[in-house]
Design a protein that fits this description.
The protein has 288 residues and is of the alpha/beta class. The protein is built from 10 helices and 14 strands. Helix content is 32%, strand content 31%.
Length: 288
Amino acid sequence: MTDTPMQIVSRGPRAEAEAASAAIDADIRLEGATYSILEEDEDRHIWRIDAFPVNDGEVEALMQLLAGYPALRTTSERLADADWLAMALSGLPPVRAGRFFIYGVHDRGRAPVNAVNLRIEAGAAFGTGHHGTTVGCLLAYDTLLKRGRYRKVLDVGAGTGVLAIAAAKTGTRIAVGTDIDPVSVRIGRENAGVNAVSARFVHASGLNDRAVAAQAPYDLVFANILARPLIFLAQDIKTALKPGGVAILSGLLRTQERAVKAAYLSRGFKVERRIHRDAWAALVLSRR
């Protein structure tokens, strides 16, 4: 671990930022790195990468990689000891994604009566609803709900549990969320309790876990993870889905969309819809 938490910020043109982001995803040294990419200044066409390395090896690897993109201006700083993730998220505004309204406790008085309200608390897990990938998944799901309900839903890489909880709040009888991070599993369970739903969260590194496989086949599978795991899990997600079932995939950049799509098309999936939010993509696929 680093002596104190660090943040690395890299700013520049969109093409360079997206290329650097793809390079981070492809670098085996940074397989578990935490970072985000977003448009910081629309008028000036400036994009920004924020990375939060957890050890000296990640610091060195990130700085070395980003130095290879001269159009990006990269800086690093040490942060004071604090729960920076919770502090940052606690001030975020609520998010509306179709019928869904995602908010934190600080906005509990703003929840509208005509929405499916999801209270998701800040914590050390991904998925508050503010990221383009989570919003894309919820928008895709909102559209699918206009055709009917899904009795059994699996959320792979559930993070805070927002997607599984959204399913449980809209008629899903069996909602299962999995994550390789035990902290995320705990947070998912806590958020399920806050939202008074029966979504179940399990610590599992794959879809062959007994608690996951016991409920298969699923009507719908969410997988908001990263491009490489999405490709690796293509066959397992197909096996977990019933014929005619739907997969909503995200966590991938637009530049990674073709590779992910190819992995699923080769296994008999059909692309139903694509959603783009900032640099991110979400794919809605049906199993033929």
